[in-house]
Amino acid sequence: MGKYLLRRLNLFVATSLVLAGVLFYTTGLFPVDRITALSGIVSPSPAQVEQVTELYALNKNTPLQFSAFLQQRLSGDLGISITSQQSVSQELMARLPATLELANVAALLALVFGVPIGILASLTQHRLTQHAIMAMTLTGYSIPVFWLGLTLSLWFGVHLGWLPISGQINLLYEIEPVTGFILFDTWVSDSEYRMAAFLDALQHMILPSITLAVLPFTVVVRITRSAMLNIMNQTFIRAAEARGLSTAKIVLRHALPNALIPVLKHLGIMLGPFASYSIIVEVIFSWPGVGSWLVSGIYQRDYTVIQGGILVVALLIMLSSILIEIVHTATNPISRKELYASN
After folding, report:
1. Cβ contacts of residue 166 below 8 Å, gap of 6+?
2. What are the transmembrane regions (predicted)?
């Protein structure tokens, strides 16, 4: 297992270097002065020009420039925003909790509803129910996320007026940020309107989280159904049935834990599309996360924001994917057997 972890770490480092190399190359293609593209300073003074030149080794050869660029970015120095003239790192850290909170709620919804429906689709003998579930998942997978988000906003926000369609919380509630996760911050707040603020934040969360959860929900249903159909025909399941165990015990104790292993693997593969969907959802619902911040930076040609946002989002996706792969290997007996056999 140690060799496997070392290989995963090497893969992460190598991929990160390639990503940094691509960002370093594209920085030179921006239609702006290189000092501005790297630092975010629009009209640098002679002293600032000299400082940036020294920090990024602009008066040296390309390998040394890349080394200096890599050193600055890995140290957390992402420059300052061309638009706001604030630290890109600080703006990013202020936006990141909102994105993580929305993504976690959407993933939780996909698992909580997708796994039971996938089990139902695999166990039911009613063909109409099977066809209805599969048709529902195919429809959900095919619907463009921007159309779904706008439609939900129009129905439940504009026509019915049931739910808010933008932002995280009503601006009337003054909640002191603690972690940046709005549901947690409102819950632990000492404000006399704590519960009202929490319910308002929860209402703001419903439409964007449902919109974002549709894609992973449909995948979870299909993968769970396929895995359950395969596992229920295995010898150990038939042995459990022969011992007189009830269907509920067989499913919960024997079949479901094994069926969740391929679900976990496919969730890791979906991180890229899930992140791109998250960006679209944040823009539609004006969610103050990294996605909407990054899109705003693209519109405003804020090159340091673009670099910082792409770098951090890509690193998070790669790191999360590798961690999910490690967990999958650790929990899957077949993967562990192949791993030890290769060693």
Report:
1. 285, 286
2. 9-30, 102-121, 133-156, 205-224, 274-299, 305-327
Helix 290-299 × helix 88-123 angle, to 10°: 120
Gyration radius (Cα) of the chain, Å: 24
Look up the pTM and report it: 0.83
Which tokens belong to 46?
């002679």
Give me the pLDDT at residue 323, please: 82
* CA–CA gap between residue 317 and residue 275 (Å, rounded): 8
Measured distance CA(240)–CA(257) in Å, rounded: 15
- Calpha distance 312→77 (Å, rounded): 12
Reduced to 3 states (helix: H, G, I; strand: E, B; else coil), residue 114 is helix
- Which two structure tokens, joined as six digits, stand for 293? 């911040």
Distance of CA 158 to the CA centre of its chain: 28
DSSP assigned state of 192:
T
* Tokens 């906003």 sit on residue: 153
Q: Residues 59-114: pLDDT tens digits?
A: 888 888 888 888 888 888 888 888 888 888 888 888 889 899 998 999 899 889 98
CATH of domain 91-342: 1.10.3720.10
Residue spans of the domains in the chain: they are 2-74, 91-342
CA pair distance 325, 329, nearest whole angstrom: 6
What is the structure's pLDDT at 341?
A: 46
Secondary structure of residue 311 in the 3-state scheme: helix
Give the per-residue pLDDT at 333.
57
